[in-house]
Amino acid sequence: MKEQILKIKENSLQEIQKAENLKILNDLKVKYLGKKGELTAVLRGMGNLTPEERPIIGSLVNEVRDELEKLIREKEEKFEKEELNKKLENEKIDITLPSTKIKRGSLHPVNRIIEDIEDLFVSMGYDVVTGPELETDEYCFERLNLPKGHPARDMQDSFYINTEYLLRTQTSAVQARTMMANKDKTPIRMITAGKTYRREDDATHSHQFNQIEGLVVDYKERNVSLADLKGTLEVFVRKIIGANLDLRFRPSYFPFTEPSYEVDVTCFKCGGKGCNLCKQTGWIEVLGAGIVHPNVLKMNGYNPEKFGGFAFGTGIDRLAMFRYGITDMRYLYTNDVRFLSQFDRKDEE
Fold it and tell me: For 321, which of 14, 289, 326, 341 could close a Cys bridge (C-beta 3.0–4.6 Å)?
């Protein structure tokens, strides 16, 4: 059996030395060292040896096995290194060449405006509140001092699902929900932003658009007044649209505020001198505002003798048009990458 082992050693060493690639080397490894290999077969036959012969033959087999494994490992490392060098030579990259530019996504201009407004009002102590887009007639109209049959409903020709539910025409419904959800009837300072729906579609209006509204309700003795509203809106407008703009309040009508105002800002294009954008007036209307109507407070659980406050609302899409000089609101919804990708640069400017 000793001669058989030495013969296996001689043959295997010669074949391993002649191996030209990893495949041949792996085949030889299986042939001599595998479970059915020649050395393993020798070990299986050791049961026929005398107790004195077994340790001698076992030691010789292990010695041959270690020598073969060492040689195979050296050959494997040699082949792997040659393969790596070949790949490096054939697949080398010139790292001095310009890289391929990766297209980067961009925030939608409406989302940019919403984030800026929310950051601003959170810094002023406001809460950001959300509400459903599918709203009930109760919260969309009735709790905002717009009972059934009220003529002001005609201004919001809306999308009804049935006699009770409709797509909300204004985010003011969230104000009512916030007041009703405040069981302790403590002061409120909140804003809400989201989609609203009305039957409109032209260059400056869309059947689906975004609004942001704010509400402040506080104790009467704190004297929350029109001056507080004006100061809040000045900070808001100058931060979002332009630092040098002035505000103008014009009396108006909203069912949920009394008194109510339309708020204009000096034209950002001409600086108030008059141009085609502001129709030579020097002013552009941006939002509606007013002191919260006592009926709205009462219908949502607040005692108008103890509480007062103000509310305001504006179209986010319109603000995006003002900030970025967009001439047609419908551009915001066409998903044209050429149009949407330019706003990173515009914000940097």
Answer: 326
